[in-house]
Design a protein that fits this description.
The protein is of the alpha/beta class. Helix 4 links the parallel strand 10 and strand 11. Strands 1, 2, 3, 4, 5, 6, 7 and 8 form an eight-stranded mixed β-sheet that branches. It has a six-stranded mixed β-sheet with strand order 11-10-9-12-13-16, with helices on both faces. Strands 14-15 form a two-stranded antiparallel sheet. It contains six helices and 16 strands. It binds flavin-adenine dinucleotide and FE2/S2 (inorganic) cluster.
């Protein structure tokens, strides 16, 4: 049976150049073409995908749900959520920066230029910048930096200054520095190897930025300990913040309730779906993990 999209079948995955039969929909299924998929270091790869223009509506903090190929011939059940690392509208490309963890991401690592890759999205609620914010502080660790990196794109478009504090185990796995710097952000790297990533040191750095009036808002992802630090400093100095949360997902669009997490809103504990209500949330409402 042909798998070619039928004229009235609005759910068909769109390839580059396909007619968009339902342009008003927010979320779509797309078959992108792999442009490149190269190792950034021993653990991370960077995938560039040429996609239908509809998919380029994704913005910082949103995610796609990826239908990963099998690394071993057996089925890979369920899609895997992945933040959009960069949207290059001129080139018609979406990029992902990913850590090879299990079968899904191992399968993704096998993708070669010219291969098809099926992605669904953009999903969720991403980062928002308020007009009165002139300077923001971004603090992330590990793969959380892939999620935070497109904030530099959003901030550059709005003329907002960014200081990005990049935390990592060692210098070899500092992620996203080039992207932040290319878009004009100032970066500060803190590492476990020289203990500069210790909470006390990061706190000193952020207090310095607050004193310099470089911290109108905080953004974080990838570490509970860093989230707690930013929450504490945010409360102390009355600085608003946003956190991108990660959670195991199944449907990715709000139907299964697998991705629930606890939040504290006006003194009450509430459950929210990370895939649909987030993944970006008010930092002070996140309970952490
Ligand atoms: C909103 C969101 C954005 C994400 N963005 C990125 C990103 O930009 N780059 C990146 O490398 N990873 C990202 N992740 C994590 C990514 O989804 C998981 O690493 C991936 O699903 C693992 O799949 P796997 O089949 O390779 O590993 P599995 O065999 O499924 O799992 C391997 C390990 O990863 C953990 N894991 C599985 N699914 C998730 C998940 N959804 N979230 C967190 N941990 C998980 C498992 O507990 C296990 O420890 C994101 C997750 C979420 C929810
Ligand atoms: S993954 Fe199904 S509701 Fe979030």
């Amino acid at each position: 049976m042909s798998s070619a999209p039928k004229g009235k079948y609005t759910n068909s995955a769109l390839r580059v150049g396909d007619k968009d039969t339902y342009p008003q929909r927010l979320v779509g299924e797309f078959i992108g073409t792999v442009v490149s998929n190269v190792s950034v270091n021993d653990e991370y790869k960077h995938l560039v995908l040429k996609v239908h223009e509809h998919a380029l509506r994704a913005y910082a903090g949103q995610m796609f749900h990826l239908l990963c190929p099998s690394p071993d011939g057996a089925e890979v059940w369920m899609r895997r959520p992945m933040s959009v690392y960069r949207v290059d509208k001129d080139a018609g490309q979406i990029e992902f920066l990913y850590k090879i963890e299990g079968r899904g991401t191992r399968g993704m690592a096998t993708l070669a230029p010219g291969d098809d890759f099926n992605i669904a999205g953009p999903l969720g609620v991403g980062f928002k910048l308020q007009e009165n914010w002139k300077n923001i502080v971004v603090l992330g660790r590990g793969v959380g930096l892939a999620t935070l990196a497109p904030l530099s794109q959003l901030a550059a478009e709005r003329g907002v200054g960014v200081t990005a504090i990049l935390s990592a185990r060692n210098a070899g796995v500092v992620m996203s520095r080039e992207l932040f710097e290319r878009l004009g952000a100032r970066t500060i790297t803190v590492l476990d190897t020289d203990n500069s990533s210790a909470v006390e040191n990061v706190e000193k750095i952020i207090e310095g930025l607050i004193a310099e009036k470089k911290a109108d808002a905080f953004f974080t992802c990838g570490s509970n300990r860093l989230l707690k630090l930013m929450q504490r400093l945010g409360k102390k100095h009355n600085i608003p913040g946003q956190v991108a949360m990660e959670q195991i997902m199944v449907c990715g669009f709000g139907a299964c309730y697998v991705c629930m997490r606890t939040f504290e809103v006006d003194g009450k504990r509430v459950l929210r779906r990370v895939c649909r209500d987030g993944p970006v949330f008010n930092m002070q409402e996140a309970v952490g993990w």
